[in-house]
């Protein structure tokens, strides 16, 4: 099973900054597999290189540094959009943008740092065990990042596949299962380079080919016929974030949405949907304005995002209106953005006298109860999501009854125009694939889209333009394995890998002439 080749003693003679730059650049190229680039043809070879570096790293310390630098480069590209909110009022907050990007990337990289450290601790360099360990701990790190400190599953490694058939496997094993198999396949190719064994590399390449074929087959799963197939009208007002709350422009954006809502069409829409916080008034404080919306919608049911008060608490909400403009059903956003929609531990900061940091404390949003499924009668059961909530695969599937479709309202104006809105849209596609459900995504500045149960965009409004879009709601698939069982299949695979890590722990070390990172 194992040969007795000694551990490598030769080290790279490149200066540390050059080695660090090479690792960071490799991570950055892997991130080019994400939207808006969606270039897996570059991301996959870079991932194989990243696995090569991880396999060559001798010991936990070197492996940890390798993983941290790879993760930092990946995050700089993947999270570049984080600077955009600080540029809305650049004169005041612009100076914070580079610090925000740096610390977000560093926090992201910490998970890769830990994953590679554990792989280095529990496996020998250049062994099959190291491949298993990297796949196991890398996947575990992505899971941890998805849930720790309220979670941030943005730019998961598996998302490099969203525009390819490979991500269809997420309907069975979820996003983390796709990450696990991806790392294993790339690791086999890296192992072939280390050991100079073309056969192993061929196995890795065959695994990737098999993933494409299997994903293509899954994508042919039939879609159930939608008996009602309501016509859904998406309203995209394109309210620039710098002007959205300008007292002069607020009525302009509101009237624009009214005009788009009442535009005649044949056939007329059954549902009219406005984006997140689409109105400049409280949902429970302006009945006359809500009546205007209902009148503009005519016979259609109007759904919109807005803010509401309940005593001393404020909520970011989605409301379904009656035909006469009353609040019929209301969903309050339950997974809020830390530091954006609420201040974590604000009560504690206030008690110790840091009042300047708690200016928003008491005025931020309260979390609602959720997730919930709304009953729209003949238009089916819908799972409402507000912006940030659409990035959490494990939460979206956590409902008492299976919905017929998903509705995501969002204000992506905060994300700028470069990468954030495209990545957010791609994650909406991922949710549809995972659960086998169509999604209607209504965004203030775009991209508003209707997505089918296989993650394909049926129709869309481009970014940065006002407009409406009328689309017949696609049908859903039969309940997917991931919708039923979540990450249980992936956890089972991880347990098998854990056994493999210890079984192959000391076998097949790398050639001492191969060098080290």
Structural commentary:
The protein has 517 residues and is of the alpha/beta class. The protein contains 16 helices and twelve strands. It has a six-stranded mixed β-sheet, covered by helices on one side. Strands 6-7-8-9-10-11 form a six-stranded mixed β-sheet, with helices on one face. Strand 9 and strand 10 form a beta hairpin. The longest helix has 26 residues, at 97-122.
| Portion of residues within helices | 40-55%
Report strand order across the widest sheet: 5-4-3-2-1-12
- The topology string of helices and strands comes to HHHHHHHHHEHEHEEEHEEHEHEEEEHH
In whole angstroms, how far apart are the ends?
26 Å
Mean of residue pLDDT values: 89
User: Could you tell me the number of beta strands?
Assistant: 12
Tell me about the biggest sheet?
Answer: 6 strands, mixed
Instruction: State the shape.
Output: globular
Cα-based radius of gyration, to the nearest Å: 25 Å
What percent of residues are in strands? 5-15%
**Number of separate helices:** 16
List keywords for this structure.
16 helices; about 15% strand; disordered N terminus; 6-stranded mixed beta sheet; alpha/beta
